[in-house]
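Recall the central idea of this unit: under ordinary conditions, the amino acid sequence of a chain determines the structure it adopts. In this exercise we apply that idea directly, starting from the sequence alone.
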Amino acid sequence: MQSKISRRAIVKGGLIAGAFIPAIGLLANASVAAALPPLDPKDPTAQALGFIADASKVDAKANATFKPNQKCGTCAQFLGKAGDAVGGCNIFAGKSVPAGGWCKVWAQKPGA
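Accordingly, the structure predicted from this sequence is:
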């Protein structure tokens, strides 16, 4: 005996599968960000951009654009979510940066 698959069952299955694809992508992104190696402050790009792992230790005299509220966690380049201790960075691709860090490329995150 042959079983028939109804059009309704196909549409329902497609909708369920479509709902899970974005969720799987979000989980994959979170695990990838956690797996990124930390940025070495001695990296040539990090040094050229004045990267400091702890923004409270930035020399304000040497970095005239620095303001105390500027940290990687509030930067538009930071790829982590609010509250994340570390996250990826558009500037330092493939590396994670601490939310409390700072570099000369800091730009205000929209809506923050």
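The beta strands are 86-88, 96-98.
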